[in-house]
């Protein structure tokens, strides 16, 4: 089965620090922009089914060793019901990490020419024949070729 790609937004719709929740194939998916990188997670907490992607995005605490702590940019998604935290980049939980994980999806930015041009639509297998059209002396001209 080939990958199914969906256009879900333009870059300016999801600036750094923002998110957008969309429905694709009856699944709600949250798309997050973390410092210019995009990540997508299923909008369902694996614990009790809360709308996970509506939770707070928090910074992670990083350390290279004792005495060194710093806050990284926001990349932990906190479940709005019970506060469980998931890494936005991978869906990995930090509460029972061996058991709990939320589904993550790959996200990329493509040029407008690569996309179908119709947000939310997937190109079908059939393509209708088209012809070049131009305007000459205020008349619309269809070119059927030679």
TrEMBL record:
Signal peptide: none
Gene3D superfamilies: Rieske [2Fe-2S] iron-sulphur domain (2.102.10.10)
InterPro entries with a match to the protein in the record: Rieske_2Fe-2S, Rieske_2Fe-2S_sf
One term of GO molecular function: oxidoreductase activity, acting on paired donors, with incorporation or reduction of molecular oxygen
Keywords: 2Fe-2S, Dioxygenase, Iron, Iron-sulfur, Metal-binding, Oxidoreductase
Family annotation (PROSITE patterns): RIESKE
Ranges where the Rieske domain occurs: 5-111
PANTHER family: 3-PHENYLPROPIONATE_CINNAMIC ACID DIOXYGENASE FERREDOXIN SUBUNIT, FERREDOXIN-RELATED
Name of the molecule in the record: 3-phenylpropionate/cinnamic acid dioxygenase ferredoxin subunit
Organism in which the protein naturally occurs: Capillimicrobium parvum
Lineage of origin: Bacteria, Bacillati, Actinomycetota, Thermoleophilia, Solirubrobacterales
Recorded name of the encoding gene: hcaC_1
């Amino acid at each position: 089965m080939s990958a199914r790609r969906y256009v879900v937004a333009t870059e300016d719709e999801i600036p750094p620090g923002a998110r957008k929740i969309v429905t694709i194939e009856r699944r709600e998916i949250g798309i997050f922009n973390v410092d210019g990188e995009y990540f997508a997670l299923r909008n369902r907490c694996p614990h009790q089914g809360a709308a996970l992607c509506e939770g707070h995005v928090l910074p992670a605490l990083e350390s290279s060793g004792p005495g060194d702590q710093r806050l990284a940019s926001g990349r932990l998604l906190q479940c709005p019901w019970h506060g469980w935290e998931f890494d936005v980049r991978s869906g990995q939980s930090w509460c029972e990490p061996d058991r709990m994980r939320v589904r993550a999806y790959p996200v990329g930015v493509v040029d407008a020419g690569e996309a179908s041009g119709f947000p939310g639509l997937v190109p079908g297998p059939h393509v209708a024949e088209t012809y070049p059209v131009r305007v000459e002396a205020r008349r619309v001209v269809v070119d059927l070729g030679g």
